[in-house]
Design a protein that fits this description.
There is one protein chain. With about 90 residues, the protein is mostly beta strands. The chain has one domain. Helices cover about 5% and strands about 35% of the residues. A four-stranded antiparallel sheet has the order 2-1-4-3. A hairpin with an 8-residue loop joins β1 and β2.
Length: about 90
């Protein structure tokens, strides 16, 4: 057996794990041999739901101070949470 990693990025509406998922990305180190996530919709409604399904939180966003006019700037999505799970596959 070999251990492979799956990584899940969730961008949430706010900096709390129990807020709505607004974007996501999934990277599969198992080459499709591990459990897959549904396509076309967020895999979890919140970061809390991912934790409850067994994902491990490995990074959460640092709070960023907002300044007047920032709401009109185009930038990366804030509130990025990174999760991982390790999957045993046959080598």
């Amino acid at each position: 057996m070999t251990t492979r990693q799956q990584v899940l990025y969730l961008w949430l509406a706010e900096g709390a794990l129990d807020t709505e998922t607004v974007g996501w990305a999934f990277h599969d180190g198992t080459r499709g041999e591990g459990p897959q996530l549904p396509e076309g919709e967020p895999p979890y409604p919140s970061g809390q739901a991912a934790l409850e399904d067994g994902w491990f939180l490995i990074q959460s966003p640092a709070p960023a101070p907002l300044h007047p006019g920032a709401e009109y700037e185009v930038t990366y999505l804030a509130n990025e949470f990174v999760f991982e799970r390790r999957i045993e596959i046959r080598s």
